[in-house]
Design goal:
Blueprint (H helix, E strand, L loop, with lengths): L1 E5 L2 E7 L8 H14 L11 H16 L3 E8 L2 E10 L7 E8 L8 H16 L6 E7 L3 H9 L3 E12 L2 E11 L1
Parallel strand pairs: 5-6
Antiparallel strand pairs: 1-2, 2-3, 3-4, 4-5, 6-8, 7-8
Helix pairs in contact: 1-2
Bound molecules: coenzyme A (COA).
The site of coenzyme A has 20 residues, from strand 5, helix 3 and helix 4.
């Protein structure tokens, strides 16, 4: 666990842990706020407490087996950001799928940058066998995210045209990779 100060506010950065199962509601509230905001995330249906518990359980199992690393940023008992890398299955097991989100009122203060740097550190010994590459999908229009990913070393490798429906529009997706 680590405490950082951003914009004068103290933020706790820590790993997802089994005790979080008792607080699944906090995680459901966090993701449901993002869904309500209608950010560029593929999930479009709000999470019930049960959905969130199932999700957290699966992540915790994967962490135990060294197939996942998962960081939580929180303040005053509220989740304000998450980032994870999840090992892909079978013959794609050398690849980790990256994800990040920050709560609306906590963006643009460097939290995304901090979480990515931290999760890269965790990835170094959080996987057994180690992963060789981190990949992500991002909506081509999501300029803040693309800017952040480039800054952290991801390179664009492909564009998937009209791969994402958002507010009635079909949008392109950019695939970005980082080789470890
Ligand atoms: C994308 C996201 C994770 C960025 O997190 P963040 O904490 O705001 O990022 P940071 O504050 O560390 O900023 C990183 C860089 O992006 C820039 N940036 C962030 N938001 C920006 C915006 N809206 N417009 C322009 N630049 C922006 C910052 O200026 C900074 O650039 P710099 O380091 O060169 O000065 C956050 O906006 C988010 O969660 N969005 C909604 C969910 C989402 O889109 N997730 C990604 C799905 S692929």
């Amino acid at each position: 666990m680590e405490k950082i100060i951003l914009n004068g506010k103290e933020i706790t950065i820590r790993k997802l842990a089994p005790k979080d199962l008792k607080d699944a509601k906090k995680f459901a509230d966090y993701i449901n706020d993002l869904i309500e905001e209608d950010v560029y995330l593929s999930v479009n249906k709000k999470y019930s407490l049960r959905d969130e518990t199932v999700f957290l359980k699966s992540q915790i199992e994967k962490i135990k087996k060294k197939n996942n690393v998962f960081l939580v940023a929180e303040t005053e008992k509220k989740i304000i950001g998450v980032s994870s890398i999840d090992r892909m299955n079978g013959k794609q097991g050398h690849i980790g799928l990256f994800g990040i989100s920050i709560a609306r009122e906590w963006r643009r203060i460097g939290l995304g940058t901090f979480l990515i740097a931290e999760i890269f550190e965790m990835a170094k010994n959080g996987f057994d066998p180690s992963i060789k590459m981190i990949t992500l999908d991002v909506i081509a229009k999501n300029e803040p995210a693309i800017h952040l990913y480039r800054k952290m070393g991801f390179k664009k490798v492909a564009v998937l045209p009209k791969y994402f429906r958002h507010r009635g529009e079909l949008l392109d997706i950019v695939v970005m990779n980082l080789y470890l």
